[in-house]
Amino acid sequence: MAVETSSQSVAKAAGDDVARGRSRGTGKRRGKGKCSLATHWYAGAMVAPVVLVIGVIIGYPLVRGIWLSLTDANERNVERSIGVNHIPATYEFVGLDNYTAAITGDQFLGTLGWTLLWTVACVSVTFSLGLGLAVLLNRRIAGRSVYRTLLILPWAVPGFVSVFSWRFLYNKDNGLLNKILAGGGIDAIPWLNDPTWAKVSVIAVNVWIGVPFMMVALLGGLQSIPGELYEAAEMDGANAFQRFRHITLPGLRSVSSTVTLLSVIWTFNQFPVIFLLTRGGPGEATQILVTQAFKFSFEISPRDFAQSSTWGVLILILLMAFAAVYRRVLRKQGEVW
Amino acid sequence: MRRGIAATALVAALGVTLAACGSDDKGSSGGGSKSSGELSGTVTWWDTSTVGSEDKVFKKLAEDFTKKHPKVKVEYVNVPFGDAQNKFKNAAQSGSGAPDVIRSEVAWTPDFANLGYLAPLDGTAALKDEGDFLKQAAASTKYNGKTYAVPQVIDSMGIFYNKKIFKDAGVEVPKTIDDLKSVSAQIKKKTGKTGLYLRGDDAYWFLSFLYGEGGDLVNADTKTVTVDNAAGVKAMKVVKDLVDSGAAKTDATDGFNNMQTAFKDGKVAMMINGPWAVADTYAGKEFTDKANLGIAPVPAGSAGQGAPQGGHNLAVYAGSKNLDASYAFVEYMSSPEVQAQTAKELSLLPTRTSVYGEPDVASNELITFFKPVVDKAVERPWIPETGSLFAPLVTEYTKVLTNQTSPEAGVKSTGDAYRKLLKGWK
């Protein structure tokens, strides 16, 4: 069994190498490039619907969002027509005023600071826990499949259901967490009513929701590391930590760099956890950029569409910058992504 | 392949975000009234009353409309009060999914009207016996010389107290804030329970304290923002002191439910609340004997007693496909018979003078208690921005109560936000 698995992974690893070699080689592609339109018309036809759909559901809102961020549009001055009432659009182009207002105002930078802290905290904790669990579950332990199933559960439950359950657990007077603490003689913790505890609480919930994905992805990565490497290292006298550091971590790099990037993007824009748990409160303590942008265009009156789009565009720029830098770093380390 | 996963994941994430913003209600389906006289079609009504107590009565009353107009189908939808304003705005703005009739809180009405979401009711079937409505209840329905809603219920706030706990602690109902503090201290000492539950997540509950110190949010006559004057600071200090001294407990999330649970289970002795909470409170185990619930005017601040005047109106969506049936429905739901019914079953205060004369209503203790309170209650300025004033205030109010900012800084930021909102005000 063990032999079979390892031979398979060797073949897989070898296949991987071949694939890499081919994609790096440039000769083949050039040769075909000439008449690609004629030979690959069907590929174009296949892709066309997708391009169209993406253009409609992503392209149009994006362009409109960018346009709105350059105007002073709000709920009162946009065009709308309700029954007999027709109200024409009266908003105006204001250039980059919204951007200067957002960046020089104290709200954006403050919220950005907490958003970054939230992202770094969530991703690092989720990654460490996910890696720990993956390593644990990669060993031969009794009831392994039961643990795996249980650990995937948080992922299977719809997000809003989890968050609402957590809200009940966190309830100061009637929540389970404080009842357990009271049993241990500890005073009730104001989970969602104190700014610091609220921050800890939202991070904890996001980690709980995020760990299964990390675990599954890293477990997959672990299983593709050939067992021979560990055997060889053991023969050379490497201890457990050295094996982890010099075999497991490098072996996982391609998987871990992808999941980290995804996780950063998701967490940065993790709307439901914060919105449903605290609505950004108490006060504005847990408000991240996306929940604040949502607040501008859906929760205040009159709804400030311009400012909301401005924040949205700024979020996009930040994430694109992050992805570009990240990609460059990976490429320097020899990863193709 | 990896790129494929990433792209799929990104699209999925976007999908989730979009779904979170979209509204999921179907619009009322066609029909339309015939000019020949008999009404037909569907009227969708968004009710915002308290789930579990008030909603049952309103649902039944609304569906009884069919007895008068057999061809009209009433679709009753209960929308949680906290979500209704945004949900309606989303639906109205996009032009799909909005109800035909909405139960609009008094402060929302001028805002909705100003945005063009409501149909003017002057000269329609909705406004029957207009002169019968209480003046202060009708005030919020007018905007720019037209009437955009019909008053459904009127209310104000009082202090609800648990008579048994008061007896155990040997205290009297507090008349001032100082009383409130000493009463709470005594209750804590004798029974170990907290005196007052103070809502920290809704600025409406702050108004009694603000008015009690002689303050107000804005003064519409002089076009001045007044929330950040000395009275505003004082009021903020009063509520903070109530929480810091242990006289009151508070929550920054789920305040209404936590308040009701704590009071119904006898964990707190007092809460500030209005008639809308009475039916739900009676359902609590402490109040199986209804006589255990006491209600008194809110404790007075240094400038006197002040509770906000609130209530709900019925408004018709301008884009309704069934305007005539909607007008008739509004007329029916605000008719003396229906109001007498809700007064009898839920102890809600009618908005029609004539209903107060009915024997059932005249003998209802809660209504006879709240009527003078409503008469004296502080009216808000019915400007379109009235509905916008709470969002900045509640953020700062919660920040003050959770020690993130000082009372002075809190009211100052609120005032600054108001001046940004009300162009040209002082």
From TrEMBL, chain A:
CDD domains: TM_PBP2 (cd06261). It is found in: Cell membrane. The keyword Endoplasmic reticulum does not apply. The chain crosses the membrane at residues 39-63, 116-137, 149-169, 200-222, 251-268, 305-326. InterPro entries: MetI-like, MetI-like_sf, UgpAE/MalFG_permease. Keywords: Cell membrane, Membrane, Transmembrane, Transmembrane helix, Transport. Residues 1-10 have a biased composition (Polar residues). This is Transport system inner membrane protein.
UniProtKB/TrEMBL annotation, chain B:
InterPro entries: SBP. Pfam families: SBP_bac_1. One of its GO terms (biological process) is maltose transport. The keyword Signal applies. Keywords: Signal, Transport. The keyword Chloroplast does not apply. PROSITE patterns: PROKAR_LIPOPROTEIN. Residues 1-19 form the signal peptide. GO terms for molecular function: maltose binding. GO terms for cellular component: ATP-binding cassette (ABC) transporter complex, substrate-binding subunit-containing. Belongs to the bacterial solute-binding protein 1 family. This is Extracellular solute-binding protein.
